[in-house]
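One-letter codes give the sequence; the integers encode the fold. A sample entry reads:
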Amino acid sequence: MKNHITTEQLPISSPLDLAKPQSAKPSQSATVRLEELSTLSTQYSRIIIIGGNHDRALDPSCDERDATLYNDLDARIAYREAFDNTLGVTYLCNNSTIVRAGDRMLRIWGSPGSIATSRQTAFGYTAGSMAEELWEQTPKDIDILITHGPPLGYLDGDNNLGCCTLLAALWQIRPLLHVFGHVHQSRGRCVLKYNSNQAEYDTMMLSRKKREEIDAEEVKYTPPHLRAAGESSGAISMPEQMTKSGGEGLY
């Protein structure tokens, strides 16, 4: 389990949401990390976590390759069962949960998916029909959305690794809060208005993404995330009211 933070660094809040990578493969340290999170139930009313692109042990589709390589199929199954059954921890994988916040009930949806950049990507999906199928299943009446991958154009790195289909889904859902991770260097936060300024910015980002895909198909251009080296394409500035600030990868 990746130790991006220690339990001592976690803020006191209710509930606690984690959208960062949790583990690469089943191991004793990963199990210990899960147990550490469960002990925080005295500080947090709910602990909600999702997987990510490094969490191959949580993705059953990775078993055929990894279990053969590590001879650990039983450990992988037990590891997933632990995530489902650990007291005080709610593990979301394209499903929802409801939490109480004061006198309000909030519906939270969590998904571990992100755009696949290699065959080693856990919970990876490709643009097009796979992306549409994934985000169409997300309910429109949720209050908080937790995803591993970012939407296109928002805290998704200089190479814009975000998902355009997820961006379109946000316009339909318009959650009170969207928490995500994946691009480590782009942590921060944005406030989205879903107004004409944002629509113009999103349209520019979608247009550029489409041009990159067309050029890639015609072998005129290699998208940044597939290059071994080279300069990034020019960045498009966000409208002023959506400028990111330092934080924890949320908006």
The longest strand covers residues 104-111. The CA atoms of residues 152 and 164 lie 5 Å apart.
